[in-house]
Amino acid sequence: MKVLVTGSAGFIGTAICAALEDAGDDVVRVDVMLEQAHGSDEPPPGTQVLDVRDAATWGALLQGVDAVCHQAALVGAGVRVGDLPHYAAHNDLGTAALLAAMHDADVRRLVLASSMVVYGEGRYACQEHGVQQPPPRSLAALDAGDFENACPRCGAPLGWELVNEDARLEPRSSYAASKVAQEHYASAWVRQADAAGVALRYHNVYGPGMPRDTPYSGVAAMFRSSVERGEPPRVFEDGGQMRDFVHVTDVAAANVTALRAAVDMPSGQWDAFNVCSGNPVSIRQVADLVADGAGAGLAPLVTGEYRSGDVRHVVASPERARTELGFEAAVGPEDGLRAFATVPLRG
């Protein structure tokens, strides 16, 4: 199989290219080498330094390609209103330009990197009133250390449940809005171009080659950096926020599996799958595991601080990916996060 991978020099793109080449596939590597992601790094050998927004000019690169694995994106929270044009340009316009170029080159199969951020808050239920959609947490409650979402009917704390792919999409940042837009552009392309594809909604990805302390870093990398400085990891809220952390090698494996599936899909089919470990952990547990793996003897510091835009819990259901795509993560968070404390990072 011949696959063009956008964002091929990034943290996840690098792992995908390696997995494809290990499987004997022919990989075309494309990356614009954005400074936010790569700093002053030189492009890896064989990488075409091109902007996905200029995909119409790529010409021969798409010839003979069986499928495109679209990882290129501007990531991060996008917390400033001024960030909106940047996300729209790189993620929305970039995806639209790529899809148009694929149509012109008669490439009809796509795997798109999406994200858990499309869900906004996770899924919650009240013991008395069942599944509920909580309102935003009030600043007064957060200031008082009351971090759980409350039932809008009775005020009792809501319990978290697994989020499946049929959950409503509720983007809460510029980045999240752009990921929803990418999915919508791709699903429209599937119908208009007689194509097929898959969106993979990544949860919290970590592992070797992850960037240090940049907008592309996650909380696990920030905990690790604290430990390396001899400081305790700083945990916001009470540390009880639940997440799913998935190792980058599992994300790469999910992409390889999805590419194989996409090539065999009937035209007109478009699917979305959570990519997760299936083993939820609290943010406090993440800090404990990273500190333990480093052997630093530093207990995490639970600060009670908060960021008003953060969600309390968002935990994925792995069931659809397991039953329909045939993907199941191999690396659990206890082993993976301990090992992460000592693997090489970027930057």
Write the layout of secondary structure elements.
Elements: E1 2-6, H1 11-22, E2 26-31, H2 35-38, E3 47-49, E4 67-70, H3 84-104, E5 109-115, E6 123-126, E7 130-132, H4 139-143, E8 159-161, H5 174-192, E9 196-202, E10 204-206, H6 219-228, E11 234-235, E12 242-243, E13 245-247, H7 248-264, E14 270-275, E15 281-282, H8 283-294, E16 301-302, H9 319-325, H10 333-340
Parallel strand pairs: 1-2, 1-4, 2-3, 4-5, 5-9, 9-14, 10-13, 11-16
Antiparallel strand pairs: 6-7, 6-8, 12-15
Helix pairs in contact: 1-7, 3-5, 6-8, 8-10
Task: Write up what this structure looks like.
- This protein is of the alpha/beta class.
- 33% of the residues lie in helices and 18% in strands.
- It has ten helices and 16 strands.
- The protein has helices spanning 11-22, 35-38, 84-104, 139-143, 174-192, 219-228, 248-264, 283-294, 319-325, 333-340; strands at 2-6, 26-31, 47-49, 67-70, 109-115, 123-126, 130-132, 159-161, 196-202, 204-206, 234-235, 242-243, 245-247, 270-275, 281-282, 301-302.
- Strands 3-2-1-4-5-9-14 form a seven-stranded parallel β-sheet, sandwiched between helices.
- Helix 8 (283-294) crosses helix 10 (333-340).
- The two termini are 33 Å apart.
Unreliable runs: none
| Number of DSSP-assigned strands | 16
Determine the structural class based on helices, strands and strand pairing: alpha/beta
Q: Count helical runs.
A: 10
The dominant shape is: globular
Strand content: 15-25%
Mean pLDDT: 94
